[in-house]
């Protein structure tokens, strides 16, 4: 066994002596670092909001125009006053929901649900802001 190890070592030394030592090019380090920087830039994910600012602005303008149009150009067919319209709709709503009775637990759950959603949205927003911070 020892003899074969010596033969292998001699063979390796002979092969190493025959091969020339290769050296990298002068700008080898700069090429590698350029590739590393390109890879790092690809890994970064830029935060893009689901709805962009121009879309929010156009939605706001559309809502403002709708309110202005409704307040200036709406014609009431029955010449009802706003208070009468409000009373009419509140009566319809109260009549349609008069047969429904909620327990206290359901009522509290309905009240707490929006609060919990707002808290979660705030926490998730902070989490993603920190995650995608540049």
Number of helices: 5
Alpha carbon gap, first and last residue? 60 Å
Evaluate the radius of gyration.
37 Å
Helix/strand-derived category reads mainly alpha
Question: How would you summarize what this structure contains?
Answer:
The chain has helices spanning 2-18, 28-43, 53-73, 82-96, 104-131. By secondary structure, the protein is mainly α.
Your description of this structure?
- The chain is an all-alpha fold.
- It is 72% helix and 0% strand.
- It has 5 helices and no strands.
- The longest helix has 28 residues, at 104-131.
- It is elongated, with a radius of gyration of 37 Å.
- The mean pLDDT is 79.
Q: What's the helix and strand layout?
A:
Layout (H helix, E strand, L loop, with lengths): L1 H17 L9 H16 L9 H21 L8 H15 L7 H28 L3
Quickly list its features.
134 residues; mainly alpha; 72% helix
């Amino acid at each position: 066994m020892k003899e074969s190890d010596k033969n292998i070592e001699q063979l390796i030394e002979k092969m190493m002596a025959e091969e020339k030592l290769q050296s990298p090019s002068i700008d080898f380090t700069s090429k590698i670092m350029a590739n590393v920087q390109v890879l790092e830039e690809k890994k970064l994910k830029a935060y893009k909001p689901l709805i962009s600012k121009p879309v929010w602005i156009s939605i706001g303008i559309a809502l403002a125009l709708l309110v202005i149009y409704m307040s200036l150009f709406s014609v009431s067919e029955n010449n009802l006053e706003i208070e009468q319209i409000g009373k009419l709709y509140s009566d319809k709503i109260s009549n349609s929901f008069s047969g429904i009775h909620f327990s206290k637990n359901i009522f509290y759950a309905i009240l707490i649900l929006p609060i919990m959603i707002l808290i979660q949205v705030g926490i998730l927003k902070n989490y993603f802001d920190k995650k995608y911070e540049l």
